[in-house]
Write a structure and sequence with these properties.
By secondary structure, this protein is an all-alpha fold. Helices cover 75% and strands 2% of the residues.
Length: 470
């Protein structure tokens, strides 16, 4: 039985946020297991890397597709499909050691990231106006919160239990999510008309697969393959754009996407996603570097994961603060402050890589900025698009964050593999490699702040916002 949304906004938000955190956790839990998977699956490290790549691909492809489907056929219905995909993926990964089965399971899990933009859209449709801004701030931040808590949780499971356990846990919690959505979350009556753009979906999927394969495999595949993928992506995108501009019900409304309020918000989202992911990648690896490097701390994988926990806590605490700032000054101002805060965090990281406390402090500042940024992005998007395109538009914004993370992963891998030191046959990244990563990520945040200045200013809505009672 569906509860009345006006009477139960807190329950709706709690259920959707729980879904968002779980799905975000499922995207990252395999990371601590990667060093062991070649032995477990009797496969090469290159083959095992597909467990990350396939999640990236399916997430990128299905996020805008499911967002559009939600706008057309019902956001709650498509949300349940996305959650079911995560459950299926968890079951496959929990029940097998075979790499092809694990890759299939990770593909299903990747598609579920569409839960977050769908949840944001449901909140816009169903909650009282005064609760929308703080609620979408919390829902959007689940992308970062889940990532921040997922890696530490996975390291503990890998260290002290059978690695299948973490997938059984996500399976059980995924089933609980489905029950909660069925009992609490209403189906939105806001729909957009027309037919689903199948040709547009195929074109966008082909472009994203070519682009993201080229980005994610650029450091391991041959030059000919990578160049071919980039050429294919470059050929597909103008044809796809030409078709989208001429069809009556496009998958992506390029005219709306070209508006400065949408375009520069999406570009800022890409850079914010880049900067955030660099923080997670560098922190997890930096504290594990061996002591013979002169800067390494030689800590365990569990300690490296726990270093991300304060940042996760900061993200939880700062999401309501971001909503309060957006209500008072507008989400454009909030995103600018967040980008500057992320850049400041990387300045801190340049000088604090020699101790656990310093590393945690710098990483937490970056995470704090990320929380504020992730909370402001959907508000900017919703102010600029029709209500019937909310899920699709937020899906595209989430896609831009995903692309930013993919580009970041490749650049970090190239820098850490290219700037190294060695001793007695052992090779490790030099400290300067990490400093280069921090500079690049900090500059990405600075450019994001510059893009925010190009977003047209908009007066905050005069509706009062109840922060802390959501």
């Amino acid at each position: 039985m569906t509860l009345r949304p006006a009477a139960h906004p807190r329950l709706i938000l709690a259920a959707l946020a729980f879904c968002g955190v779980l799905v975000s956790i499922s995207q990252t839990i395999v990371v601590p297991l990667l060093p062991e998977l070649p032995r477990i699956t009797n496969s090469s490290a290159a083959d095992v890397s597909w467990l990350i790549t396939v999640t990236l691909l399916t997430g990128a492809v299905f996020t805008p597709l499911l967002g559009r489907a939600g706008d057309m056929y019902g956001k709650r219905r498509v949300l349940l499909i996305a959650l079911a995909s995560m459950v299926i993926g968890s079951l496959l990964c929990a029940s097998s050691n075979d790499l092809p089965v694990l890759i299939a399971g990770r593909a299903f899990q990747g598609a579920a990231i569409a839960v977050v933009p769908l949840g944001i859209s449901i909140l816009r449709d169903e909650l009282p106006p005064r609760r929308v801004i703080p609620s979408i701030a919390i829902m959007s931040s689940t992308l970062g919160v889940g990532a921040a808590f997922g890696i530490p949780a996975a390291t503990l499971v890998v260290q002290y239990a059978n690695w299948h356990t973490m997938f059984w846990i996500t399976l059980g919690l995924g089933l609980l999510d489905i029950v909660l959505v069925l009992l609490i979350v209403p189906e939105s009556a806001v729909r957009t008309s027309g037919r689903f753009d199948v040709i547009g979906a195929i074109g966008l999927s082909a472009f994203l697969v070519c682009l993201l394969l080229a980005v994610s495999k650029g450091s391991s595949w041959g030059t000919a393959e990578i160049v071919g993928l980039y050429v294919a992506a470059a050929l597909i995108v103008p044809l796809w754009g030409w078709y989208e501009l001429r069809t009556t019900s496009p998958l992506v409304d390029l005219r709306v996407s070209a508006r400065p309020a949408v375009l520069f918000t999406n570009l800022a989202a890409l850079l914010i996603g880049f900067s955030f992911y660099a923080n997670s990648l560098s922190t997890a690896q930096l504290v594990q570097e061996p002591t013979w490097t002169g800067y390494g701390l030689g800590e365990s994988i569990v300690v490296s994961g726990l270093c991300l926990l304060p940042g996760g806590v900061a993200m939880v605490l700062l999401s309501p603060v971001s909503a309060r700032i957006s209500a008072a000054r507008g989400p454009r101002f909030t995103l600018a402050i967040a980008s500057v805060l992320m850049a400041a965090g990387y300045v801190v990281r340049l000088f604090t890589s020699g101790s656990i406390a310093g590393i945690v402090a710098g990483a937490t500042v970056v995470s704090a900025g990320t929380a504020v940024a992730y909370s402001a992005l959907p508000a900017l998007i919703m102010h600029a698009v029709p209500v019937t395109e909310t899920a699709a538009a937020n899906g595209l914004n989430t896609l831009m964050r995903t692309i930013g993370s993919a580009i970041c992963s490749t650049i970090v891998a190239i820098v850490l593999a290219g700037v190294t030191i060695s001793r007695a046959g052992q090779v490790a990244p030099a400290l300067s490699a990490y400093l280069i990563v921090f500079v690049i990520a900090g500059l990405a945040a600075v450019v994001a702040a510059g893009l925010v200045l190009l977003i047209p200013a908009r007066r905050p809505a005069p509706v009062p916002v109840e922060v802390g009672t959501t």
